[in-house]
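Example: N-terminal nucleophile aminohydrolase.
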Amino acid sequence: MSSIGTGYDLSSSTYSLDGRIFQVEYAMKAVDNSGLCIGVRAKDGVVLAISKLVHSKLLVPKSNKRIASVDQHIGMVCPGLVADGKALIKRARLEAQNYKDNYRLPISGKMIADRMGQFVQAYTLYSSVRPFGCSTLIATYDEVGPSLYMIDPSGVYWGYFGCAVGKNKQIAKAEIEKLKLKEITAREAVMEVARIIYSVMEDDIKDRDYEIEYTWICDESNKKHTEVPSDLVEEAEKKAKESLDDDDDDDDMDDDE
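Written out as structure tokens, the predicted fold is:
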């Protein structure tokens, strides 16, 4: 047998000859094939956004929520397999409730990320289970301020100023790196996130229906995880589309020359 997956991907507890665990890599591939998800930590809060294809015209708009509140001060989104994401959200809510019952305090961002990372990693250890086919972005606002964490299907988690997961994530990351995240507000971050998603996804889903879901947790939302106000979303998407049109006009002028 070779180390290309043959025979070594039957169990998440089996290493290949070169030390790889193929089931974890398959889970990461499932995440890469999902819609683009972006998390941005600004100076006064965190913004989460995820794009979702509308698979049927019969679906009620905005009915298939992908971003959920774990507690009043915690928002969570799981790009990848929807069912796996719902299971992780349920577990995160249980962890937050158990912590509050035991310590009479809301769980901190660092603690919820650590506990969820351990839970996800446990599903890579045994042959009787499989890794979760989704990544996890956690936005929190606690006594240390706003925080953003991302957990891989392997269970490894990191704190981020900005991150992107899903299709075309590398292009989105390059755009996020250009932002001065320590200086912009959450309101400005919504504008930038909308611009990045529209610019990255323009060619990928040009003729397909899709929705973009936005939430934030910031000073303006009273440090509670809520949906971004509809008027701000409309303004952000309008400016994002205008920016795309301007870029197209510039390209046309260059072609004429």
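The chain has a mean pLDDT of 89.
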